[in-house]
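Quick one, tokens below. Sequence please?
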């Protein structure tokens, strides 16, 4: 320690460097490290000088939007292998960077994250927040709390160890977040005489303070019976959630339920770790609506269990009854949502549609809006990292928050909707290795989850592409995105990552192509335009070919990884993109290539559709065009029409084409 190092118990400068940067209370029992440094596995130091209190750092817009985005600091060695690629985005003419503010240098590492020597997950996901930033001092109008001067921090009673008493989500009283613009002002609430656990009780209600340091976050604690009158108006008072438990157990016996839960934990939980190992799903104990939603998701995979494949061969749990149990309980709990309410709604949202050839887009979007409303009520849009609650609850809340955020992005992208969530007002946009606490995931499963988070970090900038800005111009300076080298490098989980990878790549390509597809051809265009158009179309060719190869390599064993509700939309997107490329081709050779690729894709999808239901939507939509007749649906240029008929005639002799021109 240098001569200028500060004493850790100094009255004036008692906080360590990390806690000072976060404006958090630095709790030290007898000697360093402090509690927060121990929790986050950071070095607890006291070397920074402080002559005066620092003002909270103002984050630039780029930093606020960039949490979780792949960093630009990828090594030169990682970029070197792609510099000679003729289709590399690095070879494209530089364009207005305002259209792709972060993507222009953020997709560099994508081709490596499927390899064993990919950058460590910590590079992407371990606390990307800048120094001086704490989850609770984010300056935005919707922030539900207030950052107070550090001198007021002493007014907050020091809580006992965070794992000792406070269980915000597991008590008998239901928590409801009190926002900064509500009638109960946090500045007033901070003067309450809280007990050592941060609780203040009235006759029926209570206030729970979970804030730390100079920031105050409070929840209103209410008994479940407080909304009895409101429930009476809707008829929910005639029964209770407990009454639905017996109904559930009568249609799903305990032994069947346990096996369905085992399937659920194997197939769903590695992608969505929204449960705690200390509070597992268990027949007869867990909430009935939560069990019913898990049974619904696991039911289609009964063939993967040696007993369920026989037990449920002739008589499966009635879906309508399970959904009625869920909907009845949700209607009851909507007045006072709980963590189990949010968990149930997440499972309903990611559940595939009952009919694989129907999107249910309006219904899913409405479900998503309801889920986000419940999450806001519970404060899941906040980062609880510095709250005075148990570490188990902190990590579960962060995992729930991230799952909601990323599900919203996938649905927005695949349904073609604007994002509902404002990234500046949703604080948990990535996870780190610390969030694995009590998740029940093995280290390998968590490693695969981190790879998925790396990929999903691109969804924000990709969604930004689909604004009116694409009408002006487009382009990137990023490197080419190549297909993963090894399909089995991440096991089965790697397959769904690969599908997401190809879809994100395809979505970027679609945005890049649009300016070239809407430019009036009677304009006088510079030579650079044609060079750039040629390179973009070459990149599109490589992207679609990789996607078609991916579909070709699928097998019936992949069914348990292609269940998320947006899987069907992804299969439909590749079909229509190839069709678009064929119709807008520049010559006969290019058009023939795409017609051949499309017929190959249709053949593979038809062979796999029974085993992989997510392919049926894309197959039905593209088959309907061929059934009607491509030349009767679209206006085809002469060279495109010629390529279409020649390809159809050539393939019809091999039995590989499923529809011939009328």
């Amino acid at each position: 320690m240098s001569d200028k190092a500060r004493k850790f118990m100094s009255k004036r400068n008692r906080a360590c460097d990390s806690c000072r940067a976060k404006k958090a209370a630095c709790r030290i029992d007898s000697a360093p490290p402090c509690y927060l440094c121990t929790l986050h596995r950071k070095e607890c130091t006291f070397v920074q000088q402080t002559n005066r209190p620092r003002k909270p750092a103002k984050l630039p817009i780029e930093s606020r939007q960039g949490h979780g985005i792949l960093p630009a600091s990828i090594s030169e060695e990682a970029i070197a292998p792609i510099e000679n690629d003729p289709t590399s985005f690095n070879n494209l003419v530089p364009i207005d960077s305002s259209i792709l503010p972060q993507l222009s240098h953020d997709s560099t590492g994508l081709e490596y994250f499927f390899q064993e020597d990919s950058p460590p997950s910590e590079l992407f996901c371990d606390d990307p927040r800048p120094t001086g930033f704490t989850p609770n001092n984010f300056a935005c109008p919707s922030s539900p709390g207030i950052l107070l001067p550090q001198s007021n921090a002493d007014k907050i009673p020091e809580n006992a160890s965070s794992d000792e008493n406070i269980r915000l989500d597991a008590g008998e009283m239901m928590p409801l977040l009190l926002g900064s613009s509500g009638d109960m002002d946090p500045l007033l609430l901070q003067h309450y005489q809280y007990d050592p656990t941060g609780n203040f009780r009235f006759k029926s209600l209570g206030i729970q303070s979970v804030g730390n340091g100079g920031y105050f976050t409070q929840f209103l604690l209410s008994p479940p019976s407080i909304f009895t009158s409101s429930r009476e108006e809707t008829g929910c008072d005639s029964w209770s959630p407990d009454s639905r438990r017996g109904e559930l157990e009568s249609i799903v016996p305990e032994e069947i339920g346990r096996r369905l839960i085992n399937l659920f934990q194997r197939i769903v939980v590695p992608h969505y770790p929204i449960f705690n190992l200390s509070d597992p799903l268990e027949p007869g104990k867990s909430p009935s609506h939560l069990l019913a939603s898990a049974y619904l998701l696991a039911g289609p995979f009964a063939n993967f269990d040696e007993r369920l494949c026989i037990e449920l061969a002739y008589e499966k749990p009635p879906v309508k009854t399970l959904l009625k149990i869920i909907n009845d309980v949700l209607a009851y709990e909507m007045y006072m949502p709980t963590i189990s309410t949010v968990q149930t709604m997440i499972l309903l949202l990611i559940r595939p549609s009952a009919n694989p050839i129907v999107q249910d887009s309006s219904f899913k979007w409405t479900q998503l809006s309801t889920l986000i409303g419940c999450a806001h009520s519970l404060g899941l849009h906040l980062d609880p990292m510095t709250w005075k609650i148990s570490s188990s609850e902190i990590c579960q809340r962060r995992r729930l928050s991230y799952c909601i955020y990323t599900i919203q992005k996938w649905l927005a992208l695949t349904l073609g909707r604007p994002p509902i969530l404002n990234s500046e007002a949703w604080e948990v946009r990535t996870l780190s290795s610390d969030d694995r606490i009590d998740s029940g995931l093995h280290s390998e499963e968590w490693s695969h989850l981190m790879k998925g988070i790396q990929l999903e970090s691109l969804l924000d900038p990709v969604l930004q592409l689909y604004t009116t800005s694409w009408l002006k111009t487009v382009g990137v300076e990023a490197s080419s995105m190549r297909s993963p080298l090894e399909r089995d490098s991440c096991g089965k989980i790697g397959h769904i990552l690969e599908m997401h990878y190809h879809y994100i790549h395809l979505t970027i390509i679609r945005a890049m192509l649009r300016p070239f597809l809407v430019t009036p051809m009677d304009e006088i265009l510079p030579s650079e335009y044609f060079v750039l158009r040629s390179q973009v179309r070459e990149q599109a060719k490589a992207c679609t070919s990789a996607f078609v190869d991916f579909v070709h390599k699928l097998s019936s064993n992949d069914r348990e990884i292609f269940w998320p509700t947006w899987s069907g939309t992804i299969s439909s997107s590749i079909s229509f993109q190839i069709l678009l490329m064929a119709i807008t081709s520049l010559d006969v050779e290019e058009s023939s290539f795409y017609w051949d690729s499309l017929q190959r894709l249709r053949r593979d999808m038809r062979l796999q559709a029974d085993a992989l239901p997510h392919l049926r939507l894309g197959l039905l939509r593209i088959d309907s065009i061929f059934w009607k007749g491509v030349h009767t649906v679209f206006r085809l240029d002469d060279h495109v029409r010629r390529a279409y008929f020649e390809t159809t005639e050539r393939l019809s002799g091999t039995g590989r084409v499923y529809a011939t021109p009328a």
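The two ends are 85 Å apart (CA to CA). Strands lie at 146-147, 174-178, 199-201, 206-209, 215-216, 218-222.
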